[in-house]
């Protein structure tokens, strides 16, 4: 079954040849240790995560009088993961971590996401939670709440949304009232309802650490409007005393996919208020949460890419095995694998472009995470590419899973095969941690507001184009890429001048054009590493995929840009009654 | 709940204003009777089909020692449908039918498909089966097997695929051995395994009539190769004597959606051979089956369009109700319905274009069915548009269901709402009755082989363009449409000259370009009926949708045509080892 996970050759190519992992590792990790991590990850993902993939879909979490119960295999897999120290992979040694570069840690984690996304999600939530605490929490808070998560004994959540406040956090109504102070800092009692809490309750870990967005309420004073008044609180399921905190599960959401991850409606403070400790100072909740959110968005993108990649592998394996028909002109004789049909190969090329392109894009961002601490350019570029990676991987990863069903024909529509579940699981990714529409507003309204990020990106693209033009094989693609980015940059300028309604009408179209432009650039950049080995199946495959992307995908950009160039604002202009 | 079904105003506009149903009805049906049929359909769909939509998804059909059992509500709904004579809607009075034009019958049936596609599918299969028998069967066969289906007492199936023969029917291995003759014609004993048989067994009707594709086996002679040797046999579950025929359920397929429709692996002839009667003469199986298949493809398209249309209605209702955030610049104050956000309106415009465009396209084909008997041009055009309608409605209906989830955000991903099920249900439609790839080969390799169909289509498009140019409001769209069809026609010529590999590499791209070109033409054609009422919410809405389609969708055609124009054959050229 591990043939469906991420090919080691793919990871090696991306990490060492394309992204220069050696440069990131410094003295921390040598090639041998990195190889050992990747070997271990592939094995554990195949042995402990993959086997309950379908079971966790069939046997949903349930709630009874004692709490929420998840499939025991999920807990067993996560305990193995914890015992091998993998929760701690990307944390520094002083926090008990392995100190792996983010790039390597993400490459390792991609295998678990590919094998079983809803089991791996507990890791994603927990490490993001612990990293936020490690960044903004007091030493006592880190010791109390972060370290047990880095050990994988406690799991974490993030509690942002409320039934009336989904994408718009300014409407958060959860309130925190001061309740003294202790060694863990200023203590509050929280009251409110939180919705869509992944991992909100379960029986998989000793404790659950909630990071809760709420507004401080002071007697006789109105809380601040909008997002400015938001603070972040650490609210454990079990208090340090061992007593149960005032956090109750009000219900479970029953999802179409991604089912192994429990998803809860939580009531904080049905009684005297849930006890929590503020992180940092009041009013810092949103920037703190965005630190976690940005990591979570890269994590969502990685999961979407991994699901897409696995879908591609399933489709390819099936197309090699399933025999049906004969290519036109082949006459009678035995039927051939469907891979012999040009239409099937065309679907697989599309899937390859999307799956490998998405994985590469996300790992490129992970590389930027490693650089961002020391390198302001990398940080700016990471901020720009985060909504791109989140959206492109989510949407085109899902598109791969759709293609994988199509390649399987009727079989792909049955639950006897994995591809239908991959498609259902992946459908969450364009929604959670900020929908595509939210990412588009982040890109057009925030990340492109000044030109710094785009300038850095275009410099890198220009470097790729220059290298392509110095060779001979890929100059046509380089020209097309150059032209495409001139148009995208013009469209960015047009939208910047278009006013808020024109911007809001076209932000998603710009995001799509931008995404394809970035992925096209990266395909060319990787293809340049392969021009000297066109006959090698792996490297030659990159050249074919790059050619395919430039022939069949890059022309789509025109359709997204044209309405922007024409000044269309139809989404803002159409009155609601005409819908 | 009936607000989510197809708006009566939509059907009235399409039937009477756009498609001139009055001209089809002749003396058979007056407006009052047609209205009564549509009223009745909407009511019965809402009262008997819609209520068990989710139940039929949750409670799957199961098999035990006595056969396959479906949810009882499905049987109850279909009995009501039969009691009202609706199985007979489109059959002539001499067969006990109502003699409704296909256009009206399809408009009626669309409500049932929207309400509950997997319950309505039994009707689709049964009427297609009965129509094939009525066309090719002997009078005795019609009386014995078609009439009980027209009454809705017996249900029908079509048994084409086998485990090793899905898209490629030339590999069918089921064999029929002569076994004498009786009043029902030449009798055979059939042996073989049939896969993907929708409605293959259940407890919903008194009997099940299988139409089975098989090859006649004569002692000492090899069966004919390929599809030429195929014949069609009528094989009932219960023989006219009342005895059980030798047809056994070997298993049920467990699907991702569309679950109320049982889907079986059937073994014919585990014992002495299943008794069946040949329809017509040996070797006529494929043309006979294609008569049924073409009707089935239009039926699939109608179901896909209806599911998409319902998804649009759900999304629109939710966007009007769900409050979240404020448009940029609106400051504080209460949150607004998400419909106020340009990005959401943009999604809904896309959904509207797709949903209404797909429904219109399929009903246009139903109109051609009515004309095709007397009018060779209509028959040729219907043949050309069948793969377009099948594919476009399937793929863009599904796209609407995807958008509907996105508009609902996290709620759309839960099973508390209908949109996730609509998406799962609709995913079957690009697969069954010929995948998108098969439709593409049908279009490029068969329907466009001579230029007759395309010439008829282009004449109709030219008429629309001429009318647009005679007015003032929509001349820009008319010019774009004209240009687009010149390019499509050129691409058809290019592919005709490209050889089988080039054709097979680009057939799907051509299908997509062709589909958008047809839908764009029809949007313009309908918009021309609305230019005098731009302020009317319904007619003005058509103008906005038309504008949107020309601004944001028609430019996509370029990306599909460009590789064809450039002579790309990458799907055929890429060697399998590079995938």
UniProtKB/TrEMBL annotation, chains A, B:
InterPro entries xref list: Acyl-CoA_dh-like_C_dom (IPR025878), Acyl-CoA_Oxase/DH_mid-dom (IPR006091), Acyl-CoA_Oxase/DH_mid-dom_sf (IPR046373), AcylCo_DH-like_C (IPR036250), AcylCo_DH/oxidase_C (IPR009075), AcylCoA_DH/ox_N (IPR013786), AcylCoA_DH/ox_N_sf (IPR037069), AcylCoA_DH/oxidase_NM_dom_sf (IPR009100)
Domain Acetyl-CoA dehydrogenase-like C-terminal stretches: 460-569
Gene Ontology MF: a single term: flavin adenine dinucleotide binding
Domain called Acyl-CoA dehydrogenase/oxidase C-terminal: residue spans: 283-446
Keyword Oxidoreductase set for record: yes
Acyl-CoA oxidase/dehydrogenase middle domain ranges (all copies): 158-268
Keyword terms: FAD, Flavoprotein, Oxidoreductase
TM spans (from-to): none
Source organism, top-level taxon: Bacteria
Cofactor: FAD
Family stated for the protein in its record: Belongs to the acyl-CoA dehydrogenase family.
Protein name per Swiss-Prot or TrEMBL: Acyl-CoA dehydrogenase
Organism: Sphingomonas hengshuiensis
């Amino acid at each position: 079954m591990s043939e469906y996970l991420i090919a080691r050759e793919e990871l090696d190519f991306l990490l060492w040849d394309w992204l220069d992992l050696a440069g990131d590792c410094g003295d921390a990790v040598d090639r041998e240790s990195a190889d050992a991590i990747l070997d271990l990850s592939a094995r554990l993902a195949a042995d402990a995560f993959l086997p309950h993939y379908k079971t966790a879909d069939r046997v949903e979490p349930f709630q009874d009088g004692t709490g929420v119960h998840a499939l025991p295999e999920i807990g067993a897999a996560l305990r193995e993961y914890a015992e091998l120290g993998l929760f701690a992979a990307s944390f520094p040694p002083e926090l008990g971590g392995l100190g792996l570069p983010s790039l390597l840690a993400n490459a390792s984690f991609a295998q678990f996401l590919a094998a079983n996304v809803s089991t791996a999600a507990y890791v994603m939530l927990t490490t993001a939670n612990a990293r936020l605490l490690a960044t903004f929490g007091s030493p006592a808070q880190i010791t109390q709440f972060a370290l047990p998560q880095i050990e994988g004994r406690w799991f974490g959540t993030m509690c942002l949304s409320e039934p009336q406040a989904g994408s718009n956090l300014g409407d958060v109504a959860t309130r925190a009232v001061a309740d003294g102070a202790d060694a863990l800092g200023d203590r509050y009692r929280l009251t409110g309802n939180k919705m869509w809490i992944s991992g909100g309750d379960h029986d998989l870990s000793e404790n659950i650490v909630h990071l809760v967005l709420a507004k401080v309420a002071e007697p006789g004073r109105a809380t601040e409007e909008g997002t400015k008044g938001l603070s972040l609180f650490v609210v454990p399921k079990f208090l340090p005393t061992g007593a149960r905190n005032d956090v109750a599960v009000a219900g479970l959401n029953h999802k179409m996919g991604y089912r192994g991850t429990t998803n809860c409606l939580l009531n904080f403070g049905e009684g005297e208020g849930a006890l929590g400790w503020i992180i940092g100072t009041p009013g810092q909740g949103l920037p703190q949460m965005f630190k976690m959110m940005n990591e979570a968005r890269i994590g969502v993108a990685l999961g979407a890419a991994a699901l897409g990649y696995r879908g591609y592998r399933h489709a390819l394996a099936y197309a090699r095995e399933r025999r049906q028909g004969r290519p036109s002109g082949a006459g009678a004789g035995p039927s051939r694998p469907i891979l012999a049909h040009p239409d099937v190969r065309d679907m697989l090329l599309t899937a390859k472009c999307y799956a490998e392109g998405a994985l590469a894009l996300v790992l490129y961002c992970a590389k930027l995470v490693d650089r961002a601490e020391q390198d302001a350019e990398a940080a700016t570029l990471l901020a720009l590419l985060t909504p791109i990676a989140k959206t492109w991987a989510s949407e085109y990863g899902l598109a791969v899973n759709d293609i994988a069903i199509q390649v399987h024909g009727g079989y792909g529509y049955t639950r006897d095969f994995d591809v239908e579940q991959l498609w259902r699981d992946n459908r969450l990714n364009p929604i959670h941690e900020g929908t595509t529409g939210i990412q588009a507003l982040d890109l057009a309204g925030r990340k492109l507001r000044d030109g710094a990020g785009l300038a850095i990106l275009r410099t890198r693209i220009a470097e790729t184009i220059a290298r392509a033009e110095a060779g001979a094989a890929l100059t046509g693609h380089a020209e097309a890429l150059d032209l495409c980015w001139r148009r995208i940059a013009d469209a960015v300028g047009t939208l910047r001048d278009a006013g808020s309604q024109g911007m809001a009408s076209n932000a998603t179209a710009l995001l799509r054009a931008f995404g394809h432009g970035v992925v096209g650039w990266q395909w060319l950049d990787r293809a340049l590493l392969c021009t000297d080995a066109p006959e090698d199946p792996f490297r030659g495959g990159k050249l074919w995929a790059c050619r395919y992307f430039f022939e069949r995908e890059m022309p789509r950009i025109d359709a997204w840009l044209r309405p922007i160039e024409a000044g269309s604002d139809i989404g803002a202009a159409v009155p609601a009654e005409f819908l």
